[in-house]
Specification:
297 residues; alpha+beta; Four Helix Bundle (Hemerythrin (Met), subunit A); 3 domains; five-stranded antiparallel beta sheet; 9 helices; 8 strands; 41% helix; 22% strand; elongated
Length: 297
């Protein structure tokens, strides 16, 4: 029985170099008498770990290369995997949570990187920043101003701002000077944007349903009061409570605006727009400065 031959290759499913079984190999090369010596190899491979099948092309240039420290000649090899993929993009699972315009530009940019179209990739990275500024309605005639205003609005940190400016420079070189940066620099810029996009959009889809975040608007405050009235087991209908008692431990989520939110709630109750509570007189022996609410049936 023939021994199975193995070859190390990048696996799309495992997203790393793994050992592959060589199912098929065909090579086309120069003859010894030719002036220039090169060889093309075509592989059909099966990952020994997950069983994924892929195709691998190798171009061996025996004339180009360098001499290693031990004196061995290391020739140049160009490798292409089919179907082509970008591990850095495949590992990133949160692009589906981005707004459509940002998601579309992100996908087109990662496709450009995957296909080694590095000028287009540089321009695409810059466009992702522009798309973020548009989505967040950040003012500014130029991208330089928009990045600064993203920081002023508290959406990014000072360090984030510096990094985005660096990507802006990279993108400007791609657009105006048709400069293709090294793939390693493009991938570093992509990673920076992936982290930023996760901070701005990804966590909303991933964590908001499970983590308690601060209440920053009256709308959120109103929804929280309704939720507490409907779900809290210690609150009884036709009983009277302060807003603090209604909210219970959820009070910690309202950092600075309790009085302003409660004032808006009173106005809604008095206008008949909030029908789950009524405003009651202070109960006997209680602090008269507090407002009391009856939970209505």
């Amino acid at each position: 029985m023939d021994q199975i031959k193995l070859k190390s290759s990048l696996c799309e499913k495992c997203l790393q170099e793994t050992q592959h079984k060589i199912l098929f190999l065909h090579s086309v090369g120069s003859q010894p008498s030719d002036d220039y010596h090169a060889e093309e190899k075509y592989f059909t491979l099966e990952c020994a770990g997950c069983g994924h099948t892929s195709f691998r092309y190798e171009m061996h240039d025996y004339e180009g290369g360098y001499t290693a420290d031990d004196g061995e000649w290391i020739h140049d090899i160009v490798v292409k995997i089919f179907p082509n993929f970008l591990p850095e993009a495949k590992r990133f699972k949160r692009a589906a949570w981005f707004p459509d315009d940002i998601s579309n530009i992100y996908v087109e940019t990662t496709n450009a990187i995957k296909d080694e179209n590095l000028v287009l990739a540089g321009a695409g990275l810059r466009m992702i920043i522009e798309a973020i500024a548009i989505d967040k309605k950040v003012p500014g005639k130029h991208l330089e101003n928009q990045i600064t205003n993203l920081q002023k609005k508290g959406l990014i940190s000072k360090l984030d701002s510096s990094r985005l400016h660096a990507i802006r420079f990279l993108g400007n070189d791609a657009v105006h000077a048709l400069k293709a940066y090294e793939k390693e620099k493009i991938l570093l810029a992509l990673e920076i944007l992936q982290n930023l996009l996760t901070s701005l959009y990804g966590f909303e889809g991933m964590f908001i349903p499970t983590l308690e975040l601060p209440i920053n608007s009256y709308k959120e405050f109103r929804e929280l009061v309704l939720k507490r009235i409907g779900n809290a087991t210690n609150l009884k209908k036709d009983h009277v409570y302060t807003i603090s008692a209604i909210l219970g431990n959820e009070n910690r989520r309202i950092l600075r605006n309790t009085e302003r939110f409660e004032k808006s709630l009173k106005k809604e109750i008095q206008a008949g727009k909030f029908k789950k509570l009524s405003i009651e007189n202070a109960i006997h022996g209680a602090a008269s400065s507090k407002t009391y609410y009856k939970i209505l049936t």
